[in-house]
Amino acid sequence: MPRIRTIKPEFWSSPGVAKMSPLARLTFIGMWNWADDAGRGTYNPRELMGFIFPNDEDMTVAEFRRLCAETRRYVAVVFFEVAGRHYYYIPSWKKHQSRHAKFNGSKFPSPDDGMEIDPENMQVIDGFEEIPGDSAESPRISATSNRDSAIGTGEQGNRGTGEQIYMSETSSDVVATPKPPTKPSPKRNAYPPAFEAWWSAYPRHRNASKKQALESWRKATKQIPPAELQTLTERYAATHGISDESKIPHPTTWLNQSRWETVDATDKPAAPRTPMDNNTIEAWLGEPINEPDFVDAEFWEHPSIEEAGQ
């Protein structure tokens, strides 16, 4: 749901914003309105373009993607992918929006949960990537230097991909020298370590969808802390008491139905039944019969039809 946002006066004089095209600046502001209170939003280019430019029928999706690429290049907006869905994140969101706003977290995943993508071609970015600037005066300015130049909006910072760039000046030229990544680039389709631990602990994997289990696990960890869920899952795996593996619920089913809540539950034993002879009156009536219930009677023989006619 779009929201009201704050634009500070220094936004317009920010070096990073100054390097963007006018439409890219407008795109950046529109992304503020589209983002939630944690600075995260969904990145469906066609949908986002329809929100920001509803009356510009001549604009194409490819052109809009290039505008989004400018926001990544000059003001450090992070575009990323989680479980096949695309999102964006504005790193210094809290610093530059209202200090009185209540930030209660986000329903969208964090960039740390996924892989960074290029908003123009929608491809995952692997490892170090040097992004050249657009100025003739400093043709080798990197992505990080462009982020650091966005002082007015505070959109500078590390995007969490392991990129580390330091600046050294030789004469009048500014040169960007890359350092090796501090951590290896995440693999495509990588799963969070906490989920991998849970997946390893759960006793059934065959014919189960790990991708769907991840989505169910994320929903479950909003109801119960991951560490507690891990403990209950390990306990369930050790005591489920099911000899046939095919009878164990699929991981997604177990999570969606919150079955961790009954891991420590015990079943009440059934009351023993008293055996009785099925051929007795007690068996038919379902209860014992007392002697006073019977009355003495005399039986006499009724004459046949032939005898009655004589």
Q: What does the main sheet amount to?
A: 4 strands, antiparallel
Distance between the termini: 104 Å
Shape: elongated
Total strands: the figure is 6
Strand order of the largest sheet: 1-3-2-4
- Percentage of β-strand residues: 5-15%
Number of helices: 12
* Oligomer classification: single chain
What average pLDDT do the residues reach? 74
Parts with pLDDT < 50 across at least 5 consecutive residues:
130-176
Q: State the secondary-structure class.
A: alpha+beta
Order of helices and strands: HHEHHEEHEHEEHHHHHH
Helix content: 25-40%
Short key terms for the protein model shown above:
single chain; 9% strand; 12 helices; alpha+beta; 4-stranded antiparallel β-sheet; 310 residues; two-stranded antiparallel ribbon
Q: How are the SSEs placed, and which strands pair?
A:
Elements: H1 15-18, H2 22-34, E1 40-42, H3 45-52, H4 61-75, E2 78-82, E3 85-89, H5 93-96, E4 115-116, H6 143-148, E5 165-170, E6 173-178, H7 193-201, H8 210-220, H9 226-239, H10 251-256, H11 281-285, H12 305-309
Antiparallel strand pairs: 1-3, 2-3, 2-4, 5-6
Helix pairs in contact: 2-3, 2-4, 7-9
Give an overview in words.
There is one protein chain. This protein is of the alpha+beta class and 310 residues long. The chain contains 12 helices and 6 strands. The strands form 2 sheets. Strands 1-3-2-4 form a 4-stranded antiparallel beta sheet, with no helix packed on it. A two-stranded antiparallel ribbon has the order 5-6. A hairpin with a 2-residue loop joins β5 (165-170) and β6. The longest helix is centred in the N-terminal third of the chain and has 15 residues, at 61-75. The model is unreliable at 130-176 (pLDDT under 50).
